[in-house]
Amino acid sequence: MAPLKTVAALLLGAVASVEGAQDWDHSLFTTSPPVYPSPNMTGVDAAGLAGWSAALEKAEAFLAKLTLEEKVVFTTGAPGPCVGNIAPIPRVGFKGLCLQDGPLSIRQATYASVFPAGLSTAASWDRELMHLRGKYLGEEFRGKGSQIYLGPVAGPLGRSALAGRNWEGFSPDPYLTGVAMEETIIGVQSTGVQAVAKHWIAYEQETQRNPEGTFDADTIPSVDQVQSVSSNVEDRTMHELYVWPFANAVRAGVSSVMSAYQRINGSYAGQNSKTLNGILKTELGFEGYVMSDWMGTHGGVASVEAGLDQTMPGAWNWEPHFDDVPSWYGGNLTTAVQNGTVAESRLDDMVKRVLTPYFLLGQDEGFPGVDPSSGIYPANNNFEPESDWYDLWSSAGALNSESNVDVRANHSKLIRELGAAGMVLIKNNGALPLSKPKDIAVLGNAAGDVENGLFYRDVNYAPGVLPVGGGSGTGRFENVVAPLEAIKARAKADGTHVQYILNNTRLITSGGIGQMIAPQPEACLVFVKAWASEGADRESLELDQNGNEVVENVAQNCSNTIVITNSGGQNVIPWHSHPNVTAILLAHFPGEEFGNSVVDILYGDVNPSGRLPYTLAEKESDYYFANITSSVSNPNDTNAWQSDFTERLLIDYRHFDYYNLSVPYEFGFGLSYTNYSLSDSITIKPVSNSSSLAGVPAPSNAPGGNPAIWEEVYKVTATVKNTGAVTGKAVPQLYIQLPASAGEGTPVKQLRSFDKVELTPGEEKTVTFTLTRRDLSIWDVVSQEWSVPTGTFGVHVGLSSRDIKAKSSFTI
Ligand code: NOJ
């Protein structure tokens, strides 16, 4: 193992020590090494999806029929009915491809479901629900005629608590996110719909994600413009945090990967040959295609050679106020091939990568036509019935004869269940569950119905519940169940008197609830919230619209104050230890059944089983180890936006554990209406083929990376018991402490396995945790391989990252 301190500048940059900003030499991380040529796909099966070789043969046979111009069609977005489109080619019977956002709904479509956000999904720690959510999303996309689901999200991972899109993804822990990625992808693709893992890579903030001018001018961004922020990341951090969940995605057989907007070590994500040709297509053996994010392509030949296979949205009128946006591909790519600048073999590989998943998932046979009323897009894309483009899609037989197809089936059942499973109870002094209370108050503006209409898109919000956040990852609701509505329905059945005030301003004015709520309710349920959206990072971790003041005011007047927060991530909740705050439930972004999900938990019909997928610290400054402040010293410097990932591996609980900082609510924590115990002894067994642990064989290109890193090498068992009076689901978690030889700055412990187990009162079950070689490895920046350090490995099994019930170890 090369000691971290001695390693010189290497590939993605040098590693000095992984500890602290003081050792960071910015100049070592500002260039990204060239990796060329772009590797050709070869049709290797992924562990999660077989049949790539036969599909590649079909793709090759199909490719042989195409003219040069027709090949380019597969690489360039075109006008059509969806948010992204590959145009039909009727001459060869190709009906086009419809790409839709993702990741929690068909964003703008009617008669589609809005599922819980990625954050809520991660907070469930429930593989089965993750999988089912993916499958149902896939079914809805298919039913609407969309071959391509633009999700799931592993970037942002959640380096900064302030990042606007963290909730679209899962968790700042790469292991938990990796599990959610593979379950979602396998679920989606089981329905014959392609999944797109996004955004590759190190996309951890919205601020300056795009170069100045990209979205407000009809010119191609030039070197004179202020460029996107550069995420400057050293190699070990890149692999152990940011690449990790994408490796799960590739291994699951994901069809496509979307490149990010920003720069990585100085080079745009859509033309960064190290991350595309190098890490993604060579090291991870990715066999599918890389599509750009929308208007995130900043070079033609440069991006093609660096590994980008498809540019989106291509050449079309993206929004009514944009004039034609010239495409880097399209006619320009045709010319580049004709004049020999780009080899036709590279174009062929791009097309094969696009076509292979299409054939593999059977999309050439019997795929439903596109719902011609796909929300705002037909109009926004100037895709009107009289247009040439409409005629093309129509004559290719690509449009469904029926509009407004209802694809929701019985998915609201899962949405309700997962919405509840993703809520985390962090405090309960016996206040919950409610049992036929005589009189309750519902307070706070997050309890009411949505006020800005059913489509959140990019608009900000008004008073009202936030079932999900905003931007391209939002959804158009057919139905939202607001908390007050669901509580009223329940109260009616129970004969409970419900008083309510939803106006936050009233709730913080003098007198508070005292004068307005009478008689004194048995419980005051306070609903507070914090908005988050694509396009802007959060300005603070405070609750919105005076949420904290509302809670404090209510708590002054009500000795049984139960707080429900509704937000896309961490918040500062200074009142959490207030004696009158008797329970706190973090509801996250649970989707369209919000009210029903929360009632299920509040009344105990569902025992809370969510666990924190992040750390909740005391104050905002506690999170500043990964702040979104970039060194913009000179605003006229086009290269001014730099974000140095100086914290290296130490994000979220890795930071708080490393510096031994106390936090009120740690990663993996969550209460239940019962209690669980874990045996204080665990068994550790090497798996028979695990003999050679010291270093793994040279990388091969199987999807997901070197197959040796995925081999199971240890099995750990523990016994978990329900010691309380009601049935519930425990979430035993296993954390690995790497030996000292893993180097300074290695996290104290890292999640490497978990399970979710239902237990009746008194019931006991044995849980088996499986550890792969990757789970025990670090990324060795010298050998450019995963490598198992030697020494003693600590095995910590517990009910949260800090509630460790059993410790043991093994030595390699
Ligand atoms: C931009 C977003 O970053 C991406 O996630 C989305 O899929 C595309 N726009 C298309 O809406």
Walk me through the structure.
There is one protein chain. α4 crosses α5 and α5 (174-189) runs parallel beside α6 (235-251). The chain folds into three domains: 4-395, TIM Barrel (Alpha-Beta Barrel); 423-606, 3-Layer(aba) Sandwich (Rossmann fold); 652-656 and 674-811, Sandwich (Immunoglobulin-like). The chain is globular, with a radius of gyration of 26 Å. Helices cover 23% and strands 17% of the residues. The strands form seven sheets. A six-stranded mixed beta sheet has the order 1-2-3-4-6-9. It has 812 residues and is an alpha/beta fold. α14 links the parallel β11 (439-443) and β12. The chain is built from 18 helices and 28 strands. The site of 1-deoxynojirimycin (NOJ) has 8 residues, from loops.
* Residues in helix, %: 10-25%
Strand order of the largest sheet: 1-2-3-4-6-9
Q: Could you tell me the CATH topology label of the largest domain.
A: TIM Barrel
Which ligands does the model contain, each kind named once? 1-deoxynojirimycin
> What is the averaged pLDDT score?
91
Biggest beta sheet summary: 6 strands, mixed
How many discrete structural domains?
Answer: 3
